[in-house]
Amino acid sequence: MSNPYLQRFTGVFADKAPVIGMVHMYALPGAPGYSGDLNDVIDRAVADATSLAEGGVDALLVENFHDYPFYPVTIEPETVAAAAVVAREVARHTDLPLGINILRNSWKASLGIAAAVDAQFIRLNILTDASVTDQGIINSEAHLVARYKKSIGGEHILTLADLLTKHARPIVERPVGVIAADMLHRGGADAIILAGDDTSMPPSLDRLRQVKDAIPDAPVILGSGMTAQHAATYAEVADGAVFGYGSKPDRNMDLPASTELAREFVGLWRGGKEKKAA
């Protein structure tokens, strides 16, 4: 019997358990930290994308990481337009699959940009349920996400959805396995991202195994805290990893991504995958 989740996932990421390199954009127009020069933002994003690609990552995810404090949902045209320009330049400089994440939970902006720059996936922090975040209470809008995809001809764009997103807590606790299944079967997620409590923390291996057991047919991707020390162990369980925190020298999120750190992580990750397959 065919597995529709695996088919869609491998259609973008081939047969790999992908390492998805994070391109953390400098602050965009409208954000408090914006430098006033969009070319600076573009240059840094392209440089990080190039470094990560040279380090061997399998895909890239462009995110407005430095736009804090974040809107709960970003609709401001100056931010969305600038992010599209930056993402387009990243796409022009690499052949890797490309994803978009506009924080905090800006699914319409992410999908619109993805459609405009021919990106293959988005990350969405809250697809189902509701969470208390540092931006306040954010409700799910899975019903709108699915309909907007259809309206723009974007049904091919994968939704990689966070389960129990970082920097947040659910308003109501529900069994993790039930949430994961609902996100897939009722919410329209194509894969699940599992993170720790914040950007620097990976999820526990116990929680990872719990989610994998609950949804064995769907990809589960690590969403935070990945460094070389975690690569081999987590690779034996997960189906992919978002790699951003560990790509920064001294774990300083303001620094450029390091090719050497990416190469080390990717090598250990693939070694863990080979061990699992042996």
Task: Name its key features.
278 residues, alpha/beta, TIM Barrel, eight-stranded parallel beta barrel, three-stranded antiparallel beta sheet, 9 helices, 40% helix, 17% strand, BtpA, RibuloseP-bd_barrel, Photosystem I assembly BtpA
Q: Any overview of this molecule?
A:
- The chain is α/β, with parallel strands linked by helices.
- It has one domain (16-277): Aldolase class I (TIM Barrel, Alpha-Beta Barrel), CATH 3.20.20.
- The chain contains nine helices and eleven strands.
- Strands 1-2-3-4-7-9-10-11 form an eight-stranded parallel barrel, surrounded by seven helices.
- β3 (98-101), α4 (107-117) and β4 (121-124) form a beta-alpha-beta unit.
- The chain is globular.
- Belongs to the BtpA family.
- This is Photosystem I assembly BtpA.
- InterPro entries: BtpA, RibuloseP-bd_barrel.
- It comes from Microterricola gilva.
Shape: globular
CATH architecture: Alpha-Beta Barrel
Strand order of the largest sheet: 1-2-3-4-7-9-10-11
CATH level-3 fold name: TIM Barrel
Protein name: Photosystem I assembly BtpA
Organism: Microterricola gilva
Family: Belongs to the BtpA family.
Pfam families: BtpA
Nutshell version of this structure?
By secondary structure, the protein is α/β, with parallel strands linked by helices. It is 40% helix and 17% strand. InterPro entries: BtpA, RibuloseP-bd_barrel.
Topology diagram in text:
Blueprint: H1 4-13, E1 19-24, H2 38-54, E2 59-63, H3 77-92, E3 98-101, H4 107-117, E4 121-124, E5 130-133, E6 136-139, H5 142-151, E7 158-163, E8 168-170, H6 176-185, E9 191-194, H7 205-214, E10 220-222, H8 228-235, E11 240-243, H9 259-277
Parallel strand pairs: 1-2, 1-11, 2-3, 3-4, 4-7, 7-9, 9-10, 10-11
Antiparallel strand pairs: 5-6, 5-8
Helix pairs in contact: 2-3, 3-4, 6-7, 8-9
Protein name: Photosystem I assembly BtpA
Organism: Microterricola gilva
InterPro entries: BtpA, RibuloseP-bd_barrel
